[in-house]
Amino acid sequence: MDSAEKIRYTYADYANWDDKIRYELIDGVAYAMASPSRMHQKISGELYGRLWQFLRGKPCEAYHAPFDVRLNADSFDDIIVQPDIFVVCDESKHDGKSLKGAPDMVMEILPPFNLRRDTVTKARLYRKAKVREYWIVDPNAKTVQTYILKNGSYTVRDYSFDDIIPVHVLKGCEINLADVFYDVIEPESEIRQKIIEALEETGANDAQIAKVMGKLSMD
Predict the structure, then answer these.
(1) DSSP string of 91-129?
(2) Which residues contact 24 (CB under 8 A, 6 or more apart)?
(3) Is the peptide bond before 66 cis (omega within 30 degrees of 0)?
(4) 93 vs 98: CA distance, rounded Å
(5) Bridge-based pairing state of the strands 98-100 and 68-70
(6) Percentages helix, strand, coil for the chain, rounded to the nearest 5?
(7) CA dihedral in degrees (27, 30, 34, 40; nearest 10)?
(8) The Cα angle at residue 94 between residues 88 and 100, in degrees rounded to 5
(9) Measured distance CA(126)–CA(156) in Å, rounded
(10) What is the phi-psi region of residue 96: left when phi exceeds 0, alpha when psi lies from -120 to 50, beta otherwise?
(11) What fold characterizes domain 36-70+81-216?
C-alpha cells in the first residue's frame, strides 16, 4: 500500500488490513511505519514507566504504541495515528479496539528520518483535534519540545537534558529529562544518515524510506 497512489482510505478500510504491518492514515492517505529502534524503545519505556507510575489508581490512563487513535472518528474517520505514548482522561472515548477522539496528551519520539511528520504534520493534526499537550522528544539532541494548547493555538517551549518538565495536563506530575536520557545510546551513524539522504535524492517517499531503513536496522 503506497501513499504515492493517493488513494483515500477510512478506518473501515484500515481495520481490515494485515495487522502485521503498521500504518497511519493522514487525511485518508496510508503511510507505512518502520519498526522502532533500540534508542526509541529505551526512551519510550522511560517515559511511559514514569507516567504509568504517576497515574496508578487515578482516573487518567497512559498507553503506548501500537494503539489506534482516530482523531476525527466523528466525521470522515480518515485520520488514524499511533502515538508513541498518550494519556486519556475520558473513558467514554474507548471502544475496546481504538480511541475515538483526541487524547489529553501525546508524546512522539522523533525517528532518524521523516521529522516533518512529527514536527509539522502531526502538530497540525493534534492542534486541530484539540490535544491539550503534545511533546516532541528528540533522542539525538536529548531535548523535548512541548506544545500546550491555549485558545486554539499551541504555545511552544524547549527543554534540554538537565531540565525537569511539568506535565501540564497532570497536576503534580514532573519528568526529569536526565532520568529519561541517562542510558541513551549514541546517535544514528553517519552512514545511516547518508543512506537516508541518498534515498531522498532518488525521490523515494516516506513509506519507501521507512521500509528500507527498517530492513537495515540492526537493533
Answers:
(1) GGGB-SSEEES--SEEEEEPPSS-HHIIIIIHHHHHHHH
(2) 30, 31, 33, 80, 81, 82
(3) yes
(4) 8
(5) parallel
(6) 30, 25, 40
(7) 20
(8) 85
(9) 14
(10) left
(11) tt1808, chain A (3.90.1570)
Going from the C-alpha of 210 to that of each of 66, 81, 88, the distances in angstroms are 17, 16, 29
Q: Where do the domains of the chain lie?
A: 36-70+81-216
- Quote the pLDDT of residue 32: 87
Instruction: Give the integer Cα–Cα distance in Å for 204 and 187.
Output: 23
- 3 CA to centre of own chain: 19
Four-residue CA torsion sign, 22, 24, 30, 32: negative
Give the residue ranges of the chain where pLDDT is below 50: 1-4, 218-219
Note the pLDDT tens digit of each residue in 159-175.
999 999 999 999 999 99
**All three cell numbers of 98:** 481504538
Give the separation between CA 34 and CA 215, rounded to whole angstroms.
Answer: 9
Query: How many whole angstroms separate alpha carbon 189 and alpha carbon 74?
Result: 43
Q: How far is residue 55's CA from residue 26's CA, in Å, rounded to a whole number?
A: 30
Which cell numbers in the block locate residue 151? Answer: 485558545
CA-based radius of gyration for the chain: 17
Q: What is the pLDDT of residue 58?
A: 96
d(CA 81, CA 186): 28
The strand pairing partners of 41, in sequence order, are: none
